[in-house]
Each structure stands twice: as C-alpha cells, then as structure tokens.
C-alpha cells in the first residue's frame, strides 16, 4: 500500500465522499480530511482514510483502465455493483460468509465504485506462510472456510440449466490467443493445447452439472479471512453462471502455482488441494459421489488457471514455460 497524500477539498470526489458516502456510515461529514493510499490491484483502487473519524473507504475506478473503453468501463462498474448487492440480498451479510458492502457508484467520477473497507488476511498470506514457515494448519483451516463459502455460494444459486462447456472452451481460446500474441507459445504448442481442450469437450462429465453462480476470480488476493470460518469477498466483477468447478479449479491451479514458484514443486500442494476438495464435497448429502464428480472435472479448470497465469507480463519467460508445461500435464 502506497501513501499518496491528501485528497484535495476541491476535488469532485471529495464532495462525493463527504455528501453521499460518509452519511451512509452514520459519520459526521462536516469537515473530513482524507488520506489517500494506492492499493495493488489490476484496476485503479485506492483507500481513503478520514483522519477525524478514522473511517476507511475503498474507491475502485474503472475509467482509464487499459483495454476498457468508456462503455465497457461503465458496464464493469455497474456489473460489480449489482453483483455485490445480489449476493448481499441472498444472505451474504454476516458470519461466516460476508460480501463487502457497496456504498455507491458514480459514472461521472471516472466510473468509480465505492465500497466499505473490510479488515481481513488474504489467502496469499496463509499460502506463503505454509511454504516458508511451515504454518500448514492455518492454511488447512482457511481452505476449509473457503470450501464452505464456495459450496454455499454455488448451492444457493443453482439454476435449472445445464453447464454450457462451449463457453469455457471459448475462454480457453482467448487465453491461448493472448499467449500467442505475447510470443509465449508457438504454433505446435498451441495446436497441442487445442487438441487437449477438444478432448475435454468430448467428455460427458463436462456438461453434466447444473449451472451456478461462480465467483470466477478466486485468486488468493481476492479472498480475505477473519477469525474462525469468516470469509470476506471483496471482488465480484467477473461473477457469472458456469460450472461450480470453475471456482474449484481456479483455487487448485493457484495453489499449484504458489508451490511451484516458491517451493519448486507443485506436488507439495497436493495435501492442501485434496483437503480443499474433500471439504467442499462434505457440503453434499453423498460426499463420496460429490468428490468423484468434481475431481473428474477439476484438471481442466486447474490447467486453464495455469495457462491464465502464464500469460501475465510479470511472469518471467522461463517460469511461463514451466507453467505451460504443468498445464499440459494436467490437461492430459
């Protein structure tokens, strides 16, 4: 978190926070003084802290984000605002499953979404501490909490439509196109990945489940934990209807990535992966059948996650190759 200074009183966003947002928090808005901090995020995300009340507010700006034209930025802002409200409206407002409260959005102020600030420890910290400090029990406990949250989200939002696996194949194609455009995957490699994708497309299990709402971006930085089973969700921009295993495979792939990158061996993640999937399955009447069903589909989504990470510009070329190699093995 980087300190940037104070928000000027003549900034239009200052007036918006004072007149529209602080009253929602039942705070005296007569003369706030906001310190501004930049948060590490894919969007322009800032923390505003009023020195008088100590209130903290998050501003997430969609305008000016590379790759988002003004129309797309507006849609992203509205989508996340509506997604947050939808999950809160169906009960994700208290222990143990909490979705951050959206306080407002303003298209005229650089497409900003304003949210309450939530305290919590990101999943990233628990993974890193398990690797570097052997704090394994804490990671097992938090993966139990995350599995419980995801099972609750998925089971509460089932719809009467089967999974359309073609949509995930289209997403796979976009990832491969990005890898190709970045010069990270040659023609032969891309052709092999498409062959593997088509083999998965032909498996009946990939089409068998009902659609649910998935978080769709269960990266370790987007999941916060409090005490016990507290899970706090802060990013729902990409929520969609899909296969529940989309979320599970994302968590599996992220665990593999962290252990590959920081411990040099993705297999060290296996006890945590097995625990996470088994804990998810325990939320179903037939735990063994649920576990068998989700583990049949997990390799595709885990492999897709490894490819998704491999396309990032911050990933070194040699590690991108390693990720793609592990993705190939996983998809096989």
Automatic annotation (TrEMBL):
GO MF, one example = transferase activity
**SUPFAM superfamilies per UniProt:** Protein kinase-like (PK-like)
Domain Aminoglycoside phosphotransferase: residue ranges? 70-273
Question: InterPro entries, alphabetically?
Answer: Aminoglycoside_PTrfase, Kinase-like_dom_sf
**Keywords recorded for this protein, A-Z:** Transferase
Matching entries from Pfam families are given as: APH
Name of the protein this chain belongs to: Phosphotransferase enzyme family protein
